[in-house]
Amino acid sequence: MTKIVIFGVGLIGGSLALCFKGKPGLTVVGHSNNPQSVDKYIKRQVVDHATTSMEEAAADADFIFLCVPVGNLDEYLIKLSAIPLKPDCIITDVGSTKASIAACAARLQLNRAFFIGGHPMAGKEKSGVEAATSHLFENAFYVLTPDASVPDEAYRKLAELLEWTRAKLIKVDPVLHDEVVGAISHLPHIIAVALVNQIAGYNESNDLYQNLAAGGFRDITRIASGDPIIWRDILINNREVMLKLLADWNREVDRFIRLLEEQDGDGIAKQFQTAGEFRSSLPERRKGVLTSVYELYVDVPDHPGIIGQITMLLGNQKVNLSNIHIIESREDVPGVLRLSFREESHLDRALELLKQENYTVHV
Ligand SMILES: NC(=O)C1=CN([C@@H]2O[C@H](COP(=O)(O)OP(=O)(O)OC[C@H]3O[C@@H](n4cnc5c(N)ncnc54)[C@H](O)[C@@H]3O)[C@@H](O)[C@H]2O)C=CC1
Ligand SMILES: O=C(O)C(=O)Cc1ccc(O)cc1
Asked: Which atom of ligand 1 is nearest to the CA of 122?
């Protein structure tokens, strides 16, 4: 049996455990310092076995996944370097930053084990094992950052195991990873949080802000609900990159201030033009770091039973919905229903069926 050990069975650790559990020749062991968490992992059947003992978990492990917050990764790697591990054991992590853990591994003697940094670039704003799902990583990029000391055979073994996630593996230098992911994931999280806090401040004097913000504003700021500890650790760890990105962000804000002060309408239009061009060159509907679901919107007339009709239409054709949300339902305007799917093929089939029935559908 190939033994896979997961330290930190939360959203990401739990989702990896679910990808591997029950697969031929694999056994999955979870670790937590907290005995109640250990009981929870077993009860939820996320792992085959769980323990509070780090030594027991690591003994004879073929693969070790460190899935704890970024601020605890070094400490786990240092502890593992003091435990006798199986020769050729592969240690990897899932942290959202890669440079500091790579540097830590390079400083340590890992007793014939190999460290290969990793970052599955999919997730959600929810945390904990309760939010874990086996399909979280499907079609997402999964970054690996092996350094030159890692034998090809070790990389190949990890890549083969990760096929169970159905993610797309990509090798990236750890420092470059932190710069790029800082820009496309960490900076948007800061902007979303700052924006929500700005509006929350206005709302203290008038709750119309909150009432009108229910639709689009709520959607574009979803990532502001990320776990505070996970994000504290990511941003502190990547602080040098973030400080530079925020200085650049200040320049973008200043540019808009100037354009407005000068009432430069052409300049403002040009900003939208340039942004729209770059945005339309982004890969469409491929799972990226900030989206985790396939969604469509249906305009629905406000009459009783309409939601039942739509769900029945899809259900009868075996199209699986992962979520359904009524965005607007007032007597005087048609409602909008947001339907979410886990798989692109189900989204495509739903589009086809709804159009056949003359519903107005937007992707
Ligand atoms: N949330 C997301 O969408 C993504 C997160 N990541 C990375 O994955 C790692 C785990 O994040 P999530 O699974 O989202 O978080 P989570 O909060 O769902 O899971 C964290 C796990 O670590 C344990 N833990 C928390 N504090 C600890 C400590 N001080 N010592 C030991 N164990 C501790 C928790 O009990 C839990 O099992 C982080 O390094 C994060 O940067 C990577 C990709 C996506
Ligand atoms: O909620 C979302 O869409 C995310 O942004 C999830 C996420 C969080 C952290 C990562 O390192 C990668 C992905």
From this structure: 44
